Amino acid sequence: xxxLLEEFTQSxxxxxxxxxxxxxxxxxxxxxxxxxxxxxxxxxxxRTHMMIALAAAVFAVITxxxxxxxxxxxxxxxxxxxxxxxxxxxxxxxxxxxxxxLRRGEVQGLTTGAGMWLAGAAGLSAGLGLWLxxxxxxxxxxxxxxxxxxxxxRMDLKKxxxxxxxxxxxxxxxxxxxxxxx
Length: 182
Prior knowledge:
- By secondary structure, the protein is mainly α.
- It has helices at 2-8, 16-39, 46-68, 82-97, 110-127, 131-154; strands at 101-103, 106-108, 162-164, 171-173.
């Protein structure tokens, strides 16, 4: 019983308040990034982005704790924190790829996938205590998501381009179905 009690009373290397703030920040950042996707009624919205950012932060905190654990201090054991970045990048990329579809010749879901990837990176930053990186990436990501949609609409960037034939009396779709941007 003492062994079990010792297991649950083990103190982390980071103060619990720091861990709590890092996880909360990551969750909020994911929420900010996911809110626009939710409003746009995309498949991966508020909750998905929040969970991705939170999970990335949890993995970051776990990595910090593992490197500080006595059990991993032996010279025979190699710990490489950069593998964390690789694992989170691959995991989030796998999830993001699931949102990308090809329908009627048009690619959909790229922005949502990119937002998920950014949520993972921002969550990782928050989990590692890189507050400025986490907050700046959230701010810039939110600006891109919110303002770029309006800009695309005003500039008609989402309309399929038409090709006018030399005779001038025919027009045909250029085959890119809305994805041609020159």
